[in-house]
Amino acid sequence: xxxxxxxxxxxxxxxxxxxxxxxxxxxxxxxxxxxxxxxxxxxxxxxxxxxxxxxxxxxxxxxxxxxxxxxxxxxxxxxxxxxxxxxxxxxxxxxxxxxxxxxxxxxxxxxxxxxxxxxxxxxxxxxxxxxxxxxxxxxxxxxxxxxxxxxxxxxxxxxxxxxxxxxxxxxxxxxxxxxxxxxxxxxxxxxxxxxxxxxxxxxxxxxxxxxxxxxxxxxxxxxxxxxxxxxxxxxxxxxxxxxxxxxxxxxxxxxxxxxxxxxxxxxxxxxxxxxxxxxxxxxxxxxxxxxxxxxxxxxxxxxxxxxxxxxxxxxxxxxxxxxxxxxxxxxxxxxxxxxxxxxxxxxxxxxxxxxxxxxxxxxxxxxxxxxxxxxxxxxxxxxxxxxxxxxxxxxxxxxxxxxxxxxxxxxxxxxxxxxxxxxxxxxxxxxxxxxxxxxxxxxxxxxxxxxxxxxxxxxxxxxxxxxxxxxxxxxxxxxxxxxxxxxxxxxxxxxxxxxxxxxxxxxxxxxxxxxxxxxxxxxxxxxxxxxxxxxxxxxxxxxxxxxxxxxxxxxxxxxxxxxxxxxxxxxxxxxxxxxxxxxxxxxxxxxxxxxxxxxxxxxxxxxxxxxxxxxx
Length: 616
Description:
Oligomer: single chain
Main location: nucleus
GO molecular function, one term: DNA-directed DNA polymerase activity
Region (Disordered): 446-474, 486-511, 540-616
Subcellular location: Nucleus
Keywords: DNA damage, DNA repair, Metal-binding, Nucleus, Transferase, Zinc, Zinc-finger
């Protein structure tokens, strides 16, 4: 039987406010709110104590708290556009747009720290300020270490943080339903998970300066409920025995996926809490919502969920949008807005490239226009993303591409909304210095987060030989020399050397590159021919930017020599080594021997024919 899961839900406290307080040096004790135009989108706890709430108008909020400090979100398109001024005095909604990139970057820093602090955990980004973390593997490891340290005695959490006993993890934790059960293995696991949550929260506070709250439970649903129960800067643990009482009086609006239309329909049935839904006749629910949806609802309102924690950190699309209070038919103004939207999109693509080394391939335009009598329809049009420069297309290139899409679209004016989105991501191409062979060997790893593939090795020291001189003047030649140093090759004059058993050379034979001699062709040219055969076949076989590893191995791994294979087919293709008599029949070159070993051609045959045909 699998061990009970331990899931954490970590939620940043008043995240936007914390970012601005840290950036501007505003103490946490000072009432502070983040505004977007005339509305508040985030309020810290000091301001909440003064009666200020989210979505309150700024003017109304100042009546409740004259000392309230308001910070406008970053804006683009204005004279300064940095959002550092207190208040909206220099913000013009008609010429600027809000930008939340400052908070996205802070979120990336936090998630990166969590990954480094809990590398064996599975982390799922739920939103800009919250994550789910499956710490089951870490709990298993810590409990095993504890048991080993105690000589096989009872497993009790706290080994790595220096605490003792089941309740040593506390550090401000709140346990729903009273103390944990010392004899319950499930409670022991949750206690260990709470200790891990404390360490993670402490790392975020100490290294980045942000406080967060956490929920610890056996599934995602309960962990999210718990994290909101004792804010700010605390954590709440939900043992399994406390679930029925917790869910009985839980308002439906606090249960994920039970808001909106579903919540309204349940309220129409007289259900405002999870417990009321659980007690409602199943037949009535099935008649209203169907059997499948009812089954899901009844599990959720009883705190049951097997939804896994999944890694979701790469966005599938990036959107920059602007809605107008009044419809516009000014084409020049629309092009200006495309530059503003392009600026935001460029910044986001640049940051995404630095983190994930990928580029979007498609640019989509969405617009709301062509309305008559106040009615407008949302439409969209897509095209290729402009060519990338160093890390992203220029703002002007995106603006021009968007304008071209807009001009091709229908019913665009008057326009009340514009949006540009970048999507259809693919791994970014490597630089010229990295070369084709480096790109081939990077394979699937090139799309993984981390540093880009290192450049090819530098060229060797100058040599006096003509062939060496030619090699130095060709980019990537040193890498070719190193890469194909041990490739087995067939030749018209072959020297075989016996290799020790187990040396890795198939059939105990190895042919050195220097053993090749094609009549009338110098050694350097021969080497390039053989390299080109391998490289062209490799890129043809991979079928995409990132070849299958087995294909790469099959193509570039030294091939076996077969002593009794007929070489007549190879001889006919190598016209430089064959002659034709007057009757039109081919005579084999006197130095040829059908008993000589040959290269295993497999799928190389067509490429070989083409390459040697060009040597004539």
